[in-house]
Here is the input.
Amino acid sequence: MLARASQPRHIINLMERDQLLDLAKPHYTHQQLGLLRAAVELAETKHAGQSRLSGEDYVTHPLSVAAILIEWKMDIDSILAAVLHDTLEDTDLNLLDIEDQFGQPVAFLVDGVTQVSRARSGMGDLSSYLPQTKDNLSKFLIALSRDLRVLIIKLADRLHNLRTIEHLPPERRRKVAQESLAVFAPLADRLGMSWVKLEMEEISFKVLYPKDYQHLTSLLKKRVGRAQKYLSHVRREVAAALGEQDIRFDIDGRIKSVYSLFKKLKKRPVEEIYDLMAIRIIVGNKDDCYRVLGILHAMYQPMLRKIKDYISVPKPNGYQSLHTTVITPGEQIVEFQIRTSQMHDYAERGLAASFHYNEQKLSAGYLASRTAELPRNLLWILEMQETAQRLIGGESGDNVLQLDLFSDRIFVYSPKGDIYDLPEGSTVLDFAYAVHSDVGHHAHGARINGKIAKLSAALGNGDVVEVLTRASISPNSDWLKHVKTAKARQKIRAYLNQSED
Ligand code: MN
Here is the structure.
């Protein structure tokens, strides 16, 4: 058997100094641990006398955030920054003090996290912040674009605040939950940090819709209760079959999240929702993933449209796995997810997996220097950066850029299988410009999933789009009506301006 698949252990919400140092000890060098001790002492001194609404010493919060980041196996600079993340806002410590004692990269991260927090508290009502607070959002984006670790620290900060949300007064509780559902959970998802996303959704859902939460939890319990016994039978059966084939594996079953059920119920009645139970099989290498899939399909009847190969074609956030949903002889429907331990680690930690413990080469200019090392499926981050830079540079007078960043996204494929990430409502023309400006300029139509479509046709998630071009075609001002993305709009305008001269 492989080492047990890592589950998000729900670590202590009330970290104290010694617990934190114990947790850190196996993962960092002697010198790094010395810095950590110094940071903890500084935070304790500076936050002395401050308390949280729960009545605990305030410093338990930054220490707990640091503990979460150690669990995520983050590098030492992120841990130090987490310990100090609220000192600029809430104490008399300043940036230079931090830089003197812990170095420029740590100061940079603390500053970034502080800016994100300030931007956030200025956002006000979420439904209106997008068009109205460009400045605050820009700060958010500066932080976002200059070092992704700022976002990861911010996610840990938010996660700890959610885990301790019961201490907030009801009105603030709702606000924090709403914002988490609208901004932070999607962000975690975009960064491939799936269990952070799940936990944020779960807690926020419970706060915002307590009745639905209760109802669905009991509904799940009932349905799952019936299936549970059978499921463990299936698990044993599968484990025996894999054991015979001499495959090393780890297997566990789980119930899907209440919030995902809630979202599904908006689209389908509960009788039609069968993928409530999933069995996860973790194996040693990619070949074994496909072997396991073959074995499962020989044992059970697969549901044809439910076979998904995210190993060959990963999801846009980098997720890799094989999925198949089968009907067992007992008429039970079970989803299997099969992946290697490496894929599993990435599926859970996402971008955080790029900042492993002691990566010395990481610095404030992370993305600029390590572009080539980002997983191919996270290259959209570069696009976001460009967008942020254009925003900050004031190149765009409208709010389209901001909407690009925060609207719902769809993922569209080229015939070769390249993934493009576009805002919802994007058209063939947006896609053409996303591929290349020359493709955009000469586009005259497309095949969407094999069917001929106009330039103005809206794309859906998962569409395969082949742009048809013709040399004699060129942009005209009507095209501006058919695009949603800032990029396409900008390219078309540039072309039109140029041809006027
Ligand atoms: Mn905080």
